[in-house]
Amino acid sequence: MPFPDQVRVPVATIGASAGGVTALQAFFESLPDEVGAAFVVIVHLDPEHSSDLARIIGTRTKMPVVEVTQDEPIEADKVYVIPPNRRLLVSSDRISSAPLTNHEASGHRSTCSSGQ
Asked: Residue 38 domain-assigned?
């Protein structure tokens, strides 16, 4: 739980199929550079191939776009992208990724927790 004087960053989570990349590009291109929220992007990705999604989205916004490979704090005006063959874990004010288990390979890709 954050300290009383800390303000949690609003988080907008966006999901799409692999065919939704064009819509994601249009969405991020239409946003101002500073919106005061973090964006988490989850798409269906081939677990056997690397992804250019972070780079592709990064060409449409001035916000930093990162593929989540380690635990890090969630920051406003930043875009977090799921990597291939991983699931995202969002808890309170942090985001990380973990390898998919065999039963998750074609199912759930993210887990959100209130952190309380």
From this structure: yes
Interatomic CA distance for residues 26 and 84, integer angstroms: 22
> Which CATH number is 88's domain given?
3.40.50.180
Name the DSSP class of 54.
Answer: H
Q: 3-class SS at 3?
A: coil
Number of compact structural domains in the chain: 1
Query: Among candidates 91, 78, 76, 80, which has minimal Cα distance to 2?
Result: 91
Structure tokens at 51: 């992804």
Q: Which residue has the higher pLDDT, 106 or 103?
A: 103
- Residue 112 to residue 56: CA distance in whole angstroms: 25
Whole-model pTM: value is: 0.83
14-55 pLDDT, tens digit per residue, is 999 878 999 999 999 999 999 999 999 999 887 788 889 999
